[in-house]
Automatic annotation (TrEMBL):
TM helices/strands, residue ranges: none
Official protein name in the record: IclR family transcriptional regulator
Any one Gene Ontology BP term: negative regulation of DNA-templated transcription
Stretches assigned to the HTH iclR-type domain: 9-69
Domain IclR-ED: 69-246
Swiss-Prot/TrEMBL keywords: DNA-binding, Transcription, Transcription regulation
Signal peptide as annotated in the record: none
Top-rank taxon: Bacteria
Entry's Gene Ontology molecular function annotations: DNA binding; DNA-binding transcription factor activity
């Protein structure tokens, strides 16, 4: 299980979030960084300058910042993630408006899942944003959704040499249930006190490229809410898929 450290340092968290944004989305300005983090422009400038000093970022002639040599990725990867975020943020905000719970968008890379977008709800007791965090795919809602698209041989190959290999017999049974329902339910599987429900997002052609999920404190979840949650998730996932097609 992954829990926020009790000694978390806000400035470190902000710097790491900026590094992730630069890595998966591409360039941004000081103003854009400040808006994403909800901090002053001067604070964003100091954070970006530190990333430049440590080679996590570089500044271009246009004064914007882009990923540095430490974190450099292929341009196509950044483009795909940026497109997914752009398509998802509107439907995710609508999802949060309906359910008043935090929404997340995630993608799978191998045996891990990265959260690439989050929209928090306004409730005092809520699940915080997961944007930029990475979890083992078999432990989180979005990961189960995307693993369910694999065949048995693909799943075996994926986890063949893994040191933290899950019980594949149990995982296959769970993935069969996900395929039947199109929904993954995470009851405190990845984080104590957190329940999440998710659905897949498809690209043109029908491939599942991401998962959208809502996360809530376990004290606010009951099976009676599941029908409402799934209906809202279905609307959101279809809207994101439609935006990708457009």
């Amino acid at each position: 299980m992954k829990s926020p450290p009790p000694y978390g340092v806000t400035s470190v968290d902000h710097a790491l979030r900026l590094a992730v944004i630069l890595q998966v989305e591409g360039p941004l300005t000081v103003s854009e960084a400040a808006a994403r983090l909800g901090v002053a422009r001067s604070t964003a400038h100091r954070l970006l300058s530190t990333l430049v000093y440590r080679d996590f970022a570089v500044q271009g002639d246009d004064r914007s910042y882009r990923v540095g040599p430490v974190l450099e990725l292929a341009a196509q990867t950044r483009s795909d993630v940026a497109e997914l975020r752009a398509a998802a943020l509107g439907p995710m905000r609508a999802l949060v408006d309906v359910l008043d719970e935090t929404a997340n968008l995630s993608v799978r890379t191998g045996r891990t899942v990265r959260f690439i977008a989050s929209v928090e709800c306004d409730q005092a007791l809520r699940v915080g944003r997961r944007e930029g965090m990475v979890f083992p795919a078999h432990q989180v809602t979005g990961g189960l959704i995307m693993l369910a698209t694999l065949g048995d041989d693909e799943l075996t190959a994926l986890y063949g040499g893994a040191e933290d290999r899950p019980d594949l017999t149990r995982l296959r049974a769970e993935l069969r249930a996900v395929r039947r329902s199109g929904v993954a339910l995470n009851l405190e599987r990845s984080e104590r006190g957190v329940v999440a429900v998710g659905r897949g997002v498809t690209a043109p052609g029908g491939d599942t490229v991401a998962a959208v999920a809502v996360s809530m404190p376990s004290v606010r979840y009951s099976p009676d809410r599941l029908k409402e949650i799934v209906a809202a998730l279905t609307t959101a996932s279809h809207a994101i898929s439609a935006a990708l097609t457009d």
